[in-house]
Design a protein that fits this description.
alpha/beta, seven-stranded mixed sheet, FAD/NAD(P)-binding domain, binds NADPH dihydro-nicotinamide-adenine-dinucleotide phosphate, about 25% helix
Amino acid sequence: MDIHNCVIIGSGPAGYTAAIYAARANLKPVLFTGQEPGGQLMITTDVENYPGYPDGIMGPTMMDEFKKQAERFGTDVRYELISKVELEGDVKKLWTESGEEIQAHSVVISTGASAKWLGIPSEEKLMNKGVSACAVCDGFFFKGLDVVVVGAGDTAAEEATYLAKLCPKVHMLVRRDEMRASKIMQDRVKKTENIEVHWNTETVEVLGEEEVEGVKVKNNKTNEESVIPAKAFFVAIGHKPNTQIFGDALDKDDTGYLITQADSSKTNIAGVFASGDAQDKVYRQAVTAAGTGCMAALDAERYLAEKEII
Ligand code: NDP
């Protein structure tokens, strides 16, 4: 069985950037796309904050270009999911969902994170038509319009204060009578005059056919229902890093994000590097994911050189 120099798991900006660097360093990387080739950008419309695209670019188009660039230098892109790994030791073993065993001297993890959704049908129906999980990506399209944010953690607080700079009114739906967000973020929300916090409030339905027109909500203390007119519905109830397959072998924080050593992409296992949203719960941008993907490929190349594998 061939032992690949570098296997990359994941196909968002981090994975493809790692592939571009690894391929150009002649590592002949093999990249497994996973279940959602292209990652979270595939559910985004216009990306206007990625440098180099002055007119913006559609998320799926951008990921197609990342892929073409990775393939141009010889990345072997495989449309399969890695479902099991054994990363300890010099030869890393990975298994695809169809049961094929893959071996590698180094592994770059770029499995990303997935936004959590409420799971109601109207949310899915209006996805990308006003329903979004990323204010920094999509908030600009609702400049001058009233919007709703659901959630009460740091992400929701951050998204609400970000949107409050663009929108006349931001309605924040909090399902309890307190917020989980850090005190400083809560204070920021409270001090922002155009954020209205709706306590004890749950979403019943996002209203609209072709675009969001409003949100039907229910006060869970009084059971009273009402409609908030709004043009966008931002879901900010947390993200889940896609790191379950690594079990306890890799160090993670208490929410499952992989822990990397300072100023590097190194994990606790030699030869295994982590990049993108699987290890970043703070910035979570395409450009930062690409940056850490680059770091992971450079770290993998150095590791292989030190081991005299290349
Ligand atoms: P959290 O898990 O901290 O918060 C999720 C929020 O969503 C909670 O308030 C929760 O409510 C609410 N929620 C969950 N499910 C539902 C639902 N079905 N309906 C309504 N509300 C719901 O996620 P975050 O993404 O906010 O934060 C994740 C981590 O990242 C945290 O550790 C946070 O501190 C960190 N972070 C740090 C930032 C920074 O430092 N700048 C920025 C963003 C995040 P409830 O409280 O009732 O459970």
